[in-house]
């Protein structure tokens, strides 16, 4: 179902009135939702920059059980309130199949994170709702495994799936993961689903944000996902890779994304 052979035309996933899969789009926001004030500060800058989709994690799959685990439902409520205030749409990760139904009340796009790309019960649950799903490539998943994960969702009835290349694990240590730029044109060729590139989790650093975002768009990505925090030095997660507001504004100027409307 996700193969381009059977379905040659591009799938455009509508998130509110923003088409994903047409002109390149930007999804930006903090790694974790920490407070309403934090999300509000980021949202203002997104609106200034013409960005329509805000991201933020409320349920955080952290490597260490002692790290900040996210605000849970309270985080989703904060995102919803702030997004409604600014006319934004919410992208947030859900980790538990039992939470998918509840999440549809708060989020406009259900994110399935890299660590859960092959959580098949979660994929099936996401296939049973109508809310668009942003599916991230697993840390050690092949392109084919990513496409089969998408197939789980689509085959259960939800065709609104966005694929995200977010870097895979290699022996390279100067970046957190290795951005598999080759996956972008291959996914676009093999599948009709939109493909985004997460420049934050792939690199794990922010000094090269502009060139990797440009590379992603040049490779045919339908947009970029990036982490932005008002003060990354005090962020409760992923402090090293989150852009501050000025760095984000610079990224937006460098990319000159078209202003899209449906
Ligand atoms: C995220 O985007 O918040 C995240 C945890 O990313 P990933 O699942 O790609 O590690
Ligand atoms: Mn993060």
From TrEMBL:
GO terms for biological process: aromatic amino acid family biosynthetic process; chorismate metabolic process. It comes from the Bacteria. Keywords: Coiled coil, Transferase. GO terms for molecular function: aldehyde-lyase activity; chorismate mutase activity; transferase activity. The keyword Transferase applies. This is 3-deoxy-D-arabinoheptulosonate-7-phosphate synthase /chorismate mutase.
